[in-house]
Amino acid sequence: MNMNATFTSFAPKSGHIAFVSQSGYFGGQLFSIANMEGIGFSFFVNVGNQSDVKVHEVIEYLLQDENTRVIALYIEGIRDGKRFIEACSKGSLKPIVVYKVGKSPTGARVALSHTASLAGNDRIYDAVFEKIGAIRVLESRHLFECAYALKGQPPVYGNRLGVISSSGGLCVSLSDIAYDLGLEIPVLDEGTRAKIKGILMPHASEPLNPLDTAGDLRDQVYLNVAEILLDKEYIDIVIVSPTLV
Question: What is the reported pTM?
Answer without folding.
Answer: 0.73
